[in-house]
Write the structure tokens for this entry.
Amino acid sequence: MSSKIAVMADPDTVTGFMLGGIKDGFPVNNMEEAGDKLKELAKEYSIIITTEEIGDNFREIIDKISSESALPMIIEIPDKKGSVERESDPIRELIKRVIGVEMVE
């Protein structure tokens, strides 16, 4: 697996990241295509940035990919609608999984 970064999100979020220098952007227009695209990207990219909405819709796929290996890291960010209320913080969980240390508030 190469050390490439991909963004898979709504078209506006992908455009923003591409303007910021990310070369590989994959706009998702509907949730049906997002699950298959996520599996495909996990084979080629070491970091995948996606939105919280996509993450919530495909939690089982993300958990399966994340449990198999430290890479790819799947980072969930808020989309243009804002952050989603959650019981646990996915970034906190990612840090705990990757470096083995739980952050304290």
